[in-house]
Amino acid sequence: MFDQQETIAAIITAQGMGAMGAVRISGSEAFEAAQFLFRSKKGTLIQDMPHYALAYGWIYDGDVLLDQALLLKMKGPSSFTGEDVVELQCHGGPLVLARLLQALVSRGIRMAKPGEFSQRAFLNGKIDLTQAESVMDLVSSSNRVMAEVAVQQLQGSLSGKIKAFKEKIIGWIASIEAEIDFPDEFPVGLVTSVFESEIKVMIQQIDALLETAAYGRIYREGLRLVFYGRPNVGKSSLLNGLLQQKRAIVTAEPGTTRDVLEERMMIQGIPILLMDTAGVRDTGNLAEQEGVERARGAAAQADLVLFVLDLAQGLTEEDLLLLRDLDPEKTLLIANKADLVTNRVLSFEEKVKGFEVCILSAMEQEGIDALIQKIRERFESGTLTAGNEAVLINHRQEGALFQARKALESAQEGLLRGETTDLLSIDLQDAWSYLGEITGETVKEAVVTEIFARFCLGK
Ligand SMILES: Nc1nc2c(ncn2[C@@H]2O[C@H](COP(=O)(O)OP(=O)(O)OP(=O)(O)O)[C@@H](O)[C@H]2O)c(=O)[nH]1
Ligand SMILES: [Mg+2]
To answer: What percent of the chain has pLDDT over 90?
Structure first.
């Protein structure tokens, strides 16, 4: 855990030149340290400035003038970190900011580690863990949905739900304790029968949250779309067709693509990670063999496989073998090179029953729009309930929520078996504690450190 006694500072604006650059100082010596450097035009001292006030002036390192600046004073606990904070807003030159930071360090202020401001905010109870994580999502979001969900979670949309669960559970535990302590006043089983149905409702609500995890990953990392199939069927051509640029090498020779080639794009608001792979075949070439292995791996991890075949050749035995391992729910069958055939009726339709087929020509750019529409439909027909919930949980939150659900289920089963109420209470306490990991009250210190270490410098 970081030493909270120390006063820390960091550049909080992006690297490089900009109209503005800012340095934040946080801790008990923030005002004093800033006063060393800052001379207000009106001669005001920082200690005399009111809370949230701005002062205009100049920054000096000793006698050396560094920059012109605005100083913002925030008195703890009403600041982001909960400590005394000063923000110096100057001109956004990398050297100016570095010299300013250096001047602070030479006066005993420590440089903040990545995520340290946010970690202090968490430790001082200014934000909970879900809010800290949503800050990360917000600054790294590449699409509108993620940005909107992240800002709602920052406002507390997820914390609110978790808090409500926890309060309810505490209520149940209290009733159980009352039943145990004052058996005469509570007829046996009265309390438990009331919350049998309530536990069921809570499990359903948790399931709805758990369902958002898959979409959370897609909005954070992109929908993994993997081009897969035999060599030379036109996988790379199709990737280029979707991207509208000649990104992947295309040749008439089978075995052109070797590595997994990744490219990002947006399809109607959905962030997509396109992955072109090597054509699958038996080969003596070591590099190609490795490529084939990677192709299989990528297909296994795909959200959606675009299985490409060559319509001019029809469905080959090798195609069928590959198809057998694919899940129709996660696959679109692309019959490519439609420009080479005159009759577009699929002779092999029976053999690919269950798979949705898309006939197109990557070379002629024909049928690409219909493919885009199908990708969109696949995404929407999934389990997306997140849009209206405005909550997308991440992997860590999913894990804890899953454990909480298990504990609740165990309580539910206990109730049905007519277990004694003290056993029930243990399950409920477990559920409460797992929920607390999400917001951070019961989370282990190592996890907290790991979460904040992923933040960027100055956050
Ligand atoms: N006529 C026609 N030719 C196509 C079409 N799509 C791709 N081709 C041709 O098929 C050949 C192979 O295309 P690629 O895109 O390299 O095929 P691939 O599946 O990526 O091949 P590997 O990387 O070797 O696995 C090239 O000569 C392309 O021009 C199409 O729709 N129609
Ligand atoms: Mg290729």
So the answer is: 69
The CB-side HSE value for 421 (13 A sphere, CA atoms) comes to 22
Is residue 171 located within the same domain as residue 110?
no
Q: Please check whether residue 386 lies inside any domain of the structure.
A: no
Name the pTM for this structure: 0.76
Give the closest ligand to the alpha carbon of residue 233. 1
Q: Of 332, 348, 380, which marks where a domain is finished?
A: 380
Q: Say which ligand is closest to the CA of 338.
A: 1
Q: Look up the domain containing 191 and give its range.
A: 134-217+394-440
Cα of 240 from ligand 2 centre, angstroms? 10
Helix (H) or strand (E) holding 40: strand 38-40
Cα 355 to chain center, whole Å?
31
Q: What is the largest CA-CA distance in the chain?
A: 87
Does 367 sit in the ligand 1 pocket, CB within 6 Å? no
Closest Cα to residue 226, out of 137, 297, 133?
297
Q: How far apart are CA 102 and CA 368, in angstroms?
A: 55
Distance CA 307, CA 302 (A): 11
CA-only gyration radius of the chain, Å: 29
**pLDDT of 383 higher than 60:** no
What CATH number is attached to the domain comprising 41? 3.30.1360.120
**Distance from Cα 319 to the centre of ligand 1, integer Å:** 16
446 in any annotated domain? no
Same domain, 141 and 205: yes
Whether the pLDDT of residue 385 is over 60: the answer is no
Please compute the mean of the pLDDT values over residues 74-96 and round it to a whole number.
93
User: Is 447 inside a domain boundary?
Assistant: no
- Indicate if ligand 1 lies below 6 Å from the C-beta of 126: no
240 lines ligand 1 (CB under 6 A): no
